[in-house]
Amino acid sequence: METITQHDILIIGGGAAGLRAALAAVETNPKLSIALISKVYPIRSHTVSAEGGVAGVINPEDSLEAHAYDTIKGSNYLADQDAVELFVKKAPLEIIQIENWGCPWSRTKEGKIATRNFGGMSKPRTAYAADKTGFYLLHSLFERSLKYKQITRYDEWFVTKILTCENQATGIIAIQQRTGQIFAFSAKAIILATGGAGYLYQFTTNSNIKTGDGMALALQAGVALKDMEFIQFHPTGLARTGILITEAARSEGGYLLNKNNDRFLKNYAPKTMEMSPRDLVSQAIISEIKAGRGIETPYGQCVHLDLRHLGESLIKEKLPLVREVAKTYQGVDPVYDLIPVRPVAHYFMGGIDVDLKTATPLKGLFSAGETACLSIHGANRLGSNSLAECLVFGNIAGKTTAKFVDTQPQNPTLDQTQLKKESDRLAKLRSVSGPERVAPLKKDLGEMMEQAAGLIRDKKNLEIGLTKLTKLKQRYQKIGLSDHEEIFNTEFLAYLELSNLLDVAETILISALAREESRGAHFRTDFPKQNNRQFHHHHLITRAPDGLKISLKPVTITKWPLP
Amino acid sequence: MATTLKITFKIKRYKKTADEKFLKAPYFENFKLEVDKNTTVLEALKKLKALEDGSLTFRSACEMGMCGSCGMIVNGKPVLACSIYCHDVIKKDKTITIEPLQNMPIIKDLVTDIDDPLNKMRSVMPYWDQKSKTNNEPKKACPQTPKEKARIDEATGCIKCMLCYSACPVYGQDKNFIGPGAGTLAYRYEADSRGINSTEKQQRLDKITSEENGIWGCSFVGDCSSVCPKQVDPAKALQLLKIKGSIHAAIKPLKKIFTCTSLNSSLPINNPTASWWLQNKTTLGYFLRELSAIGITLWAIFYVLNLSFPPLFTNLQSLTNFIFWFGFISALGHSISWFWVGLKITTPPSPSKSFLFLKFTGLISGWILISYLLISNLYGKF
Q1: Are the beta carbons of A487 and B189 separated by less than 8 Å?
Q2: C-alpha pair distances (Å), B149 with each of A100, A131, A314
């Protein structure tokens, strides 16, 4: 680690938020040198799996107020309303910007960007590109980023530590997977855009690359994580694999049916039916299954998603991916068959605590996308708000850092003792030996999280979860690696990722235990009611010398008071 | 009931140490695993990594066929490992062979280096900036009808998994060939109705029609399309691109003359690139020489068509006469301009004597042939 690579801005994560930030920064100030560091090629980022669309007010009959109100109502009034107002104002501009860059949005007959309904949205305001919106979006952003020579891509580099000095982020340490060598980077600003930690759960829509790296890095650097107990369970994951069946399937007219072929949501949300917010639909499915009206499958109890009445041509035009994955991974053709689905871990509403400019309290450290929490999603995210969030706050993060960099005369010098310590630590970890293996430990962690911090939680299970976690952490210390190569050592990478997952898991369990109420995605059987008097606040969780510490942060309210 | 099968996985392994001292050729290693019918090849690999050998290395991410990480060759065919079931591809002797993608360097085991295809994709400039946009103008969405969008629906589906580069025999032979993936990407931005006025269009067309590393290497084998997991059809995109490229190459010189922004600069004399032939007498000579050559060619084509018996155009006597005289004048003009220009050409540095002799004899015999044909047509055989 003799040489230290210098850049103005380091962006960690190459998904929608990271790429958008890079583009915003380079377009704000073309003189900047920007590094885009990602542990996979940016086109492999999990944004490709987003399906439904991007929310934004682009129809004349729609209004910003309505979008803001829907988002806040959907969040169970836990969203910060100033953030939501900023978000809804910028979202339409982003949709148009991406269009200008070439994103192939689906169109109306007149050639305008088409919109569809989405759960919890009072008007059709979700712009979409068939049912592969995330994929088209990511590739449009990636292709655009190829224009700029100022953006240096570090593909397949894994960041292990954020270096700090006197309450300022000064750089990072990263492993180049291709060579296995360790490098240090110094920068004036760092943006974390690494996504959530959905891989924490055994049954998830998320890629196996979503291991909460950014959250764990921030936590280690002393930055607070916010609202970690709120994890969205998507109502319709394919029963066997958990692959996402987009909400668009329901917005195009799909039904959810129980064992008796009843549209059971009439008993839970007669007005909005299948287009209710996700927390409500997921909990309704669980209630049906508990009442014995679920469908028995080899993979557990399910309900059915019925698209047969939509017809082949509509499915072909608007839901091609749903058909493709249902055929490939479940062996059913939605044109003729029912799709077995069940709720599946999908999205982290919580994340790194940032302000409206995406800055963390640590100087020089910024964050955007799923890994950040402003919060605009509160206790439950509305579908299609997340891609919009990646674009809006990715853009803001890029612009903010570009301006912040101007105020910094030169790159900070790195603390040599920290560098030495980290490279020694990594060298030691690379050759660990012991009886435990990475994969079984990850599996046990996934099962523990499903039981303790799944869709339905209570004090007893959460406490059991915490005990199990302590044991898992002890087992982690005894892990031995069988691959001691330096070049492309994926086992070593999984070992480092597992450490991040364990860190994030602890924050979730502790926050969930502290929130003794039910709100949005956080459903406690021992406290089934929402308790605004005691719990209408955010949970901040920070690392202290004696473990994790919870503090409270008030919710910002502007126009929409609690009902 | 889920039935299980015990399958032998023959996996190609390759390792090199960091100092690259101990290079060892790739070798096959056998693993046995019990799998049910719901196990994809990727899931089997993950199980093998967890249970048998932690150093078995491959890429994976989304496990739903969207990210394109897990491209590898299974039983000789490039596939996404996450979308293929073991029971479907098993051979008669209950084995499955797994190899890394071809035509690119192996980094380790099943992980290959895709940087070259990715750089080729960058080289076709997959982006655009509309010309007449001022910064003050609020941005608007560019209209596009579903019909216009349908033209790019196939090409936009490319997930850049690089299976086509592994399948392409031309890319395997010649790494300068732009390849199916980059060709598809270029076509996607060429055919998009929104990119008509973009500044990158000309450069992109120049790039793809360039001799060195353009699209012309494509010999339409079509393997790229047959292995594409997303039905993108790169072979079709490349053929359509060839048409676009040919038109571009043909009209590019004309465009330089006619597509000028203002009347004044449209006059060839004011436009240095369009008026190259007006620069001095020599250039004018070149111009006349080439122009008259076109006349001779036209006459030659006409003559060949008229060789049939009875001649095709006998009842169009005036046209026939015109063409003959046209050819004759062209030939005359060509010979005059040739000598005019030829006198001024400085001899190239030390050409070999055999070359000069060949050139001389070739020219003389050519001239004799053309003169004979012309005169015999005008005055009858003698």
Answers
A1: no
A2: 14, 15, 17
